[in-house]
Amino acid sequence: MARRIGRARNDIRNLGTDALDAINQACRQAAVQIMNDLGRAGPAYSGIFRDSWLAIPAGQGASGSAGGDYPYQISDIPNLSLTRREVGRVTKFTIENTQPYAALALDLEEGVFFPPDEFGPIKAPVKEGNRTGNRRGNVTDGDGEAKSTAELDWYVTYVNGGGMQKALEKGVKLGFKA
Amino acid sequence: MNYQAIRAALENPLLTAFNSLVPAVPVFFDNITAVPPNTTTEYVRINITFGITNEPTLTSSVDNARGALIIRIFTEKGRGPARNQTLLTTAVNVLETLNNTAKPSTGTFMRLSEINGPTFSAIDEAPHFVGRIDTSWVATVLT
What CATH number is associated with residue B120? Predict the structure, then answer.
């Protein structure tokens, strides 16, 4: 009997439509939180990178548009299917940046950086001066024109340092409140 | 929270391991600007970042810091990945040893998560082939 109760408690088949919808809304809210965190923590020179985060549904049957501009709204996240099979899916969204230079902006790869002449960064730089080596955020004091608008390794710090977990918790709370 | 103790717990074993190689491989940590990016044949860059300093828990201990460790290995470009991978293995061995160390009664208790990578890259403008791994860490300063 105990086994049966335990199984039923965890079984998504026993949830009503309202509960299934609440789960989906919590996931969407969490995605918004994460995308806004990434936009806030990441670099923003022209703003194109910051506006290029996208939550792509992992399953089938999603509806609505994906993507928007920072700060992101819940309407920028697709609605997920309410079928029990899809609600039970472990991976709901893949959040990715669509810019081809995303790996450089995330400090995952090295590159050569040329600041655009026509405008300054739209976000206050965290460091200005000379770029040492070929990493985006590796800027130290000096006479150079290099500007870094996010700390080096900001993305890995966000994912590994507890920031993403906090965003998930916040999103789930918001989702179930709505 | 003793940030320096956490840094030391991560940096010291890595520094010891790379210094013990023959020849020793230079290691550069955060806020050391003297990295000669185009003059040294090979070197290691280690960055430690802090994500959170404490976490509310049901126990009395909330000094549970979390963050990321990023290790980049720079070796000569155009000579294949072997040397880079050898140095990466040195780093990974240190991290695995750290993870297998029993919890001390004093000092810093450190645990690492899965190690991501390695990923490799090389660009035309730089003389290095770069191998990169990263992981998350959780640390509690017990004293």
Answer: 3.30.2000.20
